[in-house]
Amino acid sequence: MSDAARTCWFRSGLAALLLGMVCSLGVAWGQGAAPAASPAPAAERAAEAVDEGDRWYVIELAGSRAGYQRTKVTKAEGRVTTESEAKISMKRGAVGIEVRMSSEFVETAGHEPVSMRSVRVMGSGPVVTEYTFGAEGIEVESTQGARTTKSTRGLPEGVWLTPAAADAFMRQRVGAGAKEIVVRSIDPSSGPDPIVLTYVFEEKVTVQALGREIPAWKYSFTASNLPQIKQTAWLDERGVLIRSEGDLMGRMVVRAAAREDALRDTAGPEIMVSTFVKPDRVIESPRRVKRAVYVLSVPEGEMPEVPSGGGQRAERVGPREVRVTVDASGFMAAAEGVGDERFLKATPVVDYKDPKVSELRDRALAGKEGEGAAARAEALRRFVYGFITAKHMGVGFDTASGVARTRGGDCTEHAVLLAALLRGDGIPARVVTGLVYADAFAGATDVFGYHMWTQALLEREGVSGWVDLDATFPGRVAFDATHIALGASALDDGDLERDMAKMVGLLGRLSIRVVETE
């Protein structure tokens, strides 16, 4: 894809993963080259117009240097390879962490997909996911250390462009002065579901970059997996990205730079405490709150949908406001999940078939073979709390098998390990991302911090519903009503980025009014 599209797609996947780091507690183009089909006309005309190059960018978050991104395209032996890599350093409170991502897409010179690969380093070791395109489906193989999981999934729906075809098309449209450009393609770091970027031309300007003034075309753009994020891109006359900005954690900036500049070391900005939400009033004894009502709002635009499920009911009261009622002991029939194999599936993150994870499940449930699913789920929750002894924020986002070996992490590691143990016991499970109230945490007081916990699909009187389980809580307290769910994920292939992306636009913008607590 064009350097602009390639960088923005890759950044979308990276932005979604950053939310996991925060958790502490004109011409319109609607066609593309489909797999095992003839390339779309625009891609066909530009089959030989692949723009080979190696470009570097500095990534800034909240006004501070955070890391770099590199994009590279090469042609060899009748194939085109599109590569991207990024490293971001940041701090959660006083703890420094680092995230590394890289991806590769291989296609033929005629723009037929061959394979793609993503590597993510966020926990105890890299997670490598490889996709091989076939006529009937995609073979997926994910590896962490010596552990490998394999699966098959269907081809992407609809018509889409491979990266090099998208590159050629994007450059053609910029060169032709198109007022609107729509490109649908795949970013390996976000899985095989196509992402749509829509560019709308604003004006011709001059941008300072790479030590000189560069004439540029300014576009506003949106990504289908981050629809609520306002983003801007500046492209040169070839369609090469010079700079992009988006509303993420204050501001995320990607700017063209020399290799030496891009690779400069940095400790990165603090990205957790800065996202805490201060409500309008203090909540007394938060761990004892059984029922609460909140109003969530954003200052402008539209408040994203907030889910109902488990003990939470959400009701929109205006374009910018949602009323949320949380009952810690509540239970409602599941609107989704019953019979859905995703919530029982072993995935690269919820890898419950790993021998060490299976061993932990057996230890946690020893002597409880005759008990019901609800009792076993609670036993697993308590086990995870006690098993993770190194409770710290120095891990980005580890897999269940990684946590089983390190015994360390924060809320994300507790949630993922519990989900794996539940699925290993045959209980459907997913993770929930949202907020939880803390009277004191990381030097802040009386705030809501972004958080992750687990939900198990259980039955009560013959009715199936999601039940909230927070493995960061000790003893008998499995959950309280200061949890506000914003989204849920099966953590299937590509789910993490896609599901978390829905909440990225709330960072730094969300307000919470506490209506009542009991």
N-to-C CA distance: 54 Å
What is the count of structural domains? 2
Report the total helices. Answer: 9
Shape: globular
- Rg measurement, Å: 23 Å
List the topology elements.
Elements: H1 3-22, H2 41-45, E1 53-61, E2 64-76, E3 79-92, E4 95-108, E5 113-121, E6 127-133, E7 138-144, E8 147-153, H3 163-175, E9 180-185, E10 195-209, E11 212-223, E12 226-235, E13 241-246, E14 252-257, H4 259-262, E15 291-297, E16 312-318, E17 321-327, H5 355-364, H6 373-387, E18 390-391, H7 400-406, E19 408-409, H8 411-424, E20 429-441, E21 444-460, E22 463-469, E23 483-489, H9 495-504, E24 511-517
Parallel strand pairs: 18-19
Antiparallel strand pairs: 1-2, 1-14, 2-3, 3-4, 4-5, 5-6, 6-7, 7-8, 9-10, 10-11, 11-12, 12-13, 13-14, 15-17, 15-24, 16-17, 20-21, 20-23, 21-22
Description:
The protein is α+β, with helices and mostly antiparallel strands and 518 residues long. It folds into two domains: 3-262, no CATH class; 276-517, C8orf32 fold (Roll), CATH 3.10.620.30. Helices cover 19% and strands 41% of the residues. It is built from nine helices and 24 strands. It has helices at 3-22, 41-45, 163-175, 259-262, 355-364, 373-387, 400-406, 411-424, 495-504; strands spanning 53-61, 64-76, 79-92, 95-108, 113-121, 127-133, 138-144, 147-153, 180-185, 195-209, 212-223, 226-235, 241-246, 252-257, 291-297, 312-318, 321-327, 390-391, 408-409, 429-441, 444-460, 463-469, 483-489, 511-517. A 14-stranded antiparallel beta sheet has the order 8-7-6-5-4-3-2-1-14-13-12-11-10-9. Strand 6 (127-133) and strand 7 form a beta hairpin. The longest helix has 20 residues, at 3-22. Mean pLDDT is 84; it is low at 4-12 and 26-50.
